[in-house]
Amino acid sequence: MPIIEMKKVFLLGHREEREKIFSLLHTLGSVELLDIKSGAAWEEFKTLLEPEHAGETVSQTESVLSDIRYCLDFFQRHFPVKKNFVEQFTGAKLELSREDFAEFIGRLEQVRAVHESCYRAEEKLALIRNEETQTQNLLEELKPWIPLSLPLEEIKDGSFTTMGLYTAAEENLDNFLAALSEKVSAHYLEVVFTENKYVSFFYSGLAQEEQPTRDIFKEYTVTSVSFPDLEGTPAHNIDLLQQKLDDLAKQRESTLQEVEALVEYRPMLMACHDYIANELQKIEAVDNLARTENSFLLEGWIPAPVLNDLEVAIAEKTDTAVLAARDPEPGEDFPVLLHNSGPIEAYEVVTKLYSTPRKSELDPTPFMAPFFFVFFGICLSDAGYGLILSLLALYISRKLNLEGMGKQLIYLLFLGGISSVFFGILFGGYFGDLITLPPLWFNPLDDPMRMLFYCFAIGLVHIYFGMGVQAYRNIKAGHLLNAVYDQGFWFIFLNGLILLMLPEYAAVARWMAIGGGVGLILTQGRNQSGIILKFLSGLLSLYNITGYLSDVLSYSRLLALGLASLVIASAINAMSEMVAGSIIGVVIMALVLMGGHLFNIVISTLSSYVHTSRLQYIEFFSKFFEGGGKTFQPFRAESSYIDLAEPEEG
Amino acid sequence: MTGTEIALIGAALAVALAGIGSAIGVGIVGQSAAGLVTEDPDKFGQTLLLQALPGTQGIYGLLAGFIIMQNIGIIGDELLELTVPQGYGFLMAALPIAIVGLVSGIYQGRVSAAAVGLVAKRPEELGKGIVYAVMVETYAVLALLATIMLLFGIPL
Q1: What is the rounded distance in angstroms from the CA atom of residue A407 to the CA atom of residue A276?
Q2: Regarding the domain delimited by B3-153, which CATH topology (the fold level of the hierarchy) does it fall under?
Q3: Does one domain contain both A382 and A524?
Q4: How far is CA A486 from the centre of its chain?
Q5: What confidence category does residue A433 fall into, taking pLDDT thresholds of 50, 70 and 90?
Q6: Does residue A310 fall inside a structural domain?
Q7: What are the sequence ranges of the domains in chain B?
Q8: Which of A122, A146, A426, A547 is 20 to 30 Å from A138 by CA-CA measure?
Q9: A567–B63: do the CB atoms touch at under 8 Å?
Q10: Mind listing the pLDDT tens digit for each residue in A91-133?
């Protein structure tokens, strides 16, 4: 039984030992805590117990944690820790020895100061950025005015004349000039520059004619441009602004240097982050408890096999705690923990990506694993590619300290590589046709129809196997008749239809098809009320034959993907041959071969993985697997940044 | 037109149309992925995976084109002189992956782009997003299969 049995535990302890017991549970990491107030048992305890609250320490700890997060985010923005492609999927962590970790934790009180410095630096950077944009904008505005040799502060209205800078649309300019010469007795206009169909100019007129001039400006939508607070010529000002920008850049540089000096605290912050996050977890867990004046009660789930360990630990390490465990009551929802051993464990990742099984359901992983292994191999079907894939997976698992799903995925690819070597030898694929060895079985390129037939056959086995699992589930649940009606009749009916294609079995096949079909018509409507409705929905159920047909045809992708990886490999080989000849040609040929085959391995592995998964999810799981269970989430130490080295033996 | 020329039109269509489909599809995903990565640069790997998904149609098209080129001897040996019916055979054989590759590439791109949104909120559900996108690719795989079977069935 790959789904682990769960026990419900109740733990009663003395208040004074609460911290100790929590630390113990946290280190063991085998109990999923439940909020006792929301459990069914709360009704019984309600009169005796009070709910426990975590209290003020939560918000204090949270604020420290958010300070640390702020600093780490801030560092990440300016001095990011680069993750490579593999690490982005797996999340690389900092490796620390226990001594270093303890030392970093000891410096927890420095967090406040680092946070303060980070906060100030960020404020300063924001100010600098702000000023930079403003200066830059002014600079852009001022730049075209360089030809104007007049100091800007002198452009103002005097007692006899008005002066100003203006912009008008180019298309209005002629009319505007005509209007000016018609209505105004004297004026001076000098075009400074034309940009984006707008003309900018210096204008001077008589003060007494200001009103008519304004009217004309309004009529031709001439807008005024002003640079308040600036003195000297535009060219001079631009120099000043440029200098200011340089200054700001220098300021930013020095602020960033200050930040860079702070970055040395990053490992310390990372360690503190993980420490505080776990402390917070422990503090918050208190919310799940119920209490009397001097004792507390805790409720949770524990996997049955480790219950004994917990009992021993509690008995050894504590004086007051009492532990009681019981089986889940019928109908009680408990969390699901998958447990598969050996290579099958790798395939848990495929199941988990779909859904966690329900508590009462079979774990589909062991049923699916062999098919996944075979299908993946058929899709890649190249001994050379398989070898490289396995070696790469081996290398990554050695190099990176992977946990959980990442580890399983890498292991799955390793096994996929082995399967691919196997099928590559069967079908004669060694980097496409780079190394020509005769296939052990036959080459699908020479006889695709034959391969297609085998693909359908293996698909049929897969589907029948799924139906078989469902039949087993039905029988186990005591619904023997459901197994006969829903799986048995379909099995007979489908086999009858298939055998009809073989003339020598035609007589038997006809009766099988008719028998199975009649059985389906009579039974598939059994949940309907009324004889007519029963019959009609029974008849309609035969339409599901299209579902089975498309399911089987779907396995043709095994052939298509196998051919695709094979033919792309051959194409790469053909291309590399074209350039061979001279010495440079040989070098290019080697590059084409390496790059091309690496590309093909990545692409083909990706399609092999996703299409094989799809065959499991859509064609196989749909026959018997529902999913939607709750994953077991134990109360244990979690780490976001730090990977603690195992304590050394001895 | 000679048979060889008609066959070449087939090769060109397979590579070009399926390639266009993939280019559009990959483009759609890239746009939404870039949006997500501005917020969260660590999602680059996951989104790149999603972006690669609608790229397969182009490869299938190239594959079909390559088989045609090899069969009529453009690559390797000397060019074969095909009869007109043989040429049409190659052209027709190229059509399934050319047409389905064009359309499915675009739609797979849309599904993958939606999956980028899914990864933004729930990175752990990447697998489900991929499955949705692969549902679309099924038809490109089937079309490729039809194309390959047709190509190998043409008597030369």
Answers
A1: 27
A2: Four Helix Bundle (Hemerythrin (Met), subunit A) (1.20.120)
A3: yes
A4: 38
A5: confident
A6: no
A7: 3-153
A8: A122
A9: yes
A10: 567 777 888 888 888 888 888 888 999 999 999 999 999 999 9
CB A334 within 8 A of CB A317: no
**Structure-block tokens of residue A610:** 């996703």
Within 8 A of A448 by CB-CB distance, chain B residues are 148-149, 152
B-facing residues of A in 519-558 (CB < 8 A) are: 553-554, 556-557
Residue of A349, A353, A433, A576 to mutate when probing chain B, most B C-beta within 10 A: A353
ipTM value, please give it.
0.72
Alpha carbon B114 to its chain's center = 20
Residue in A with minimal Cα distance to B61: A564
What is the number of CB-based contacts under 8 A between chain A and chain B?
Answer: 84
* CA contacts within 13 A on the Cβ side of A117: 16
Whole-number CA gyration radius for chain A: 38
Query: Which residue in A57, A60, A68, A66 sits closest to A110, CA to CA?
Result: A68
Two tokens, residue A451: 């391969």
- Cα A452 to its chain centre, rounded Å, is 35
Beta-carbon contacts of residue A89 (< 8 Å; ≥ 6 apart):
A406, A409, B45, B46
Mutation target vs B (from A84, A348, A608, A614; most B CBs, 10 A cutoff): A614
Judge whether A571 is closer than 8 Å to chain B, CB to CB.
yes
CB A164 within 8 A of CB A152: no
pLDDT (mean) for A535-544: 86
For residue A647, pLDDT beyond 60: no
pLDDT tens track for A210-230: 888 888 888 888 888 888 788
Output the six-digit token pair for A158. 């005097």
A9-to-A20, A22, A23, A335, B36 alpha-carbon distances in Å: 18, 14, 17, 13, 43
pTM higher than the cut 0.90: no
Using a 10 angstrom Cβ sphere, with 0-12 exposed, 13-18 middle and 19 or more buried, the burial of residue A15 is middle
Range of the domain at A176: 150-232
H-helix or E-strand spanning residue A173: helix A173-183
- Cα–Cα distance measured from residue A202 to residue A190, given in angstroms and rounded to the nearest whole number: 5
Q: Which two tokens stand for residue A516?
A: 């199975």
3-state DSSP assignment of residue A8: strand
Which pLDDT score is estimated for A86?
Answer: 62
Please list the ranges in chain B whose pLDDT falls under 70. Answer: 75-77
Interface of B with A in 81-120 (CB under 8 A): none
Are A645 and A96 in contact, with CB atoms under 8 Å apart? yes
Q: Distance of alpha carbon A215 from its chain centroid, rounded?
A: 64
DSSP alpha helices (H): ranges in chain B? 3-39, 44-52, 56-71, 84-121, 126-153
- Number of domains comprising chain A: 2
Residue type for position B99:
I
Chain B hits for A566, CB-CB cut-off 8 Å, are none
> What digits encode the pLDDT tens for the residues A31-89?
888 887 776 667 777 777 777 776 777 888 888 889 988 988 888 888 887 766 666 65
Inter-chain touch B148–A560, beta carbons under 8 Å? yes
- Between A534 and A650, the more confident residue is A534
What CATH number has the domain bearing residue A223? 3.30.70.100
Q: Beta strands A198-206 and A187-195: pairing type?
A: antiparallel
The DSSP string of B11-30 is HHHHHHHHHHHHHHHHHHHH
Domain boundary among A203, A232, A261: A232
Does residue A518 sit within a domain? yes
Q: Which helix (H) or strand (E) holds A405?
A: helix A404-427
Q: Is A618 on the interface with B (CB under 8 A)?
A: yes
pLDDT score for A648: 46
A639 inside domain: no
